[in-house]
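dumping this here before i forget
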Amino acid sequence: MNAAGLARRRVMLDALVALLGPRGVGAQPSKHARVGVLASSTEANFGPSIKVFAEGLAAAGWVDGRNLTLDVRYPAEQYARLPALAAELVKLKVDVIASMGTPATQAAKQATKTIPIVMESLSDVLATGLVSNLARPGGNITGVSGFSPELSGKRLELLREILPRVERIGVLLNRANAATAPVLRATEAAARQMRIRLHVVDVWQLSELPVAFEALTRGRCDALLLVADPLLFGGMRRIVELAARHRMPAVYETARFAEVGGLVSYGPLAQERFHQHPARQPAWRASLRAAPGVRARAESRGGARPRLGDPFAPASARRPRDRVASRLRRAGRPRR
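structure:
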């Protein structure tokens, strides 16, 4: 694990612990802290990450049920519920709001200008309006952004490795998430350079997935690229199953898709961003306490690497392309 990756994964907890106050040898809590956690979709999707997040806080001395209360809110599969849930956390007078995902961060920002917000986002925080400046964002938002537009091109390159003659790639996304637009622009730019045509299909509800894949098939798409979105994460297994049924090799942004049978993922290990001891960057904590407005850090996902799902990675020393191609041949699809 490189140093940049380790630093990135502890920034969110470092910022939150700094705002709560020091805990460690000889330090005494001045009060029982209350943290609101606003997720962007279902408990099934974000619950594991929030569990790891709570474990990281506990490692820093803030234990839920002892000197800390975690108020967690999930909007299920409806982004429209987020503003009301954010307002609910504000009424509870929480000390800090931890927002997970761009939709949750936008709702928290609209709900309060005074309660500190510690965000975790994979979006372009400038393009989505979460902060106005990376060096001096002002306001009440800090945290970490893992936006890396260059990875869009890497995912297209992976699909070309799998299918060398690929001409048309389907893009499955949810435009209701403001984080989608910058990623789509980066993907379109990379596709133009590679002379690959894109067929974009928008999905706002998981019930639309079967229709979306029919549209991709009618569009004669050779392969699939999925743009990360909390709502679509809730349909991981369904998406992987539909991609297999429509014989459409797919590359995903997170390893969780590969873990449930998806072909390839290329991106960060999501849960690791939430769990690293938060008491190891005193300079970062001091800068937070000294600043009149909290600072924000935008971190690129350095060291990202493709991850093959088990169904497409039999025990072999062959290259990923060869392992995938052999799987496609066994499924009856010719290697291109």
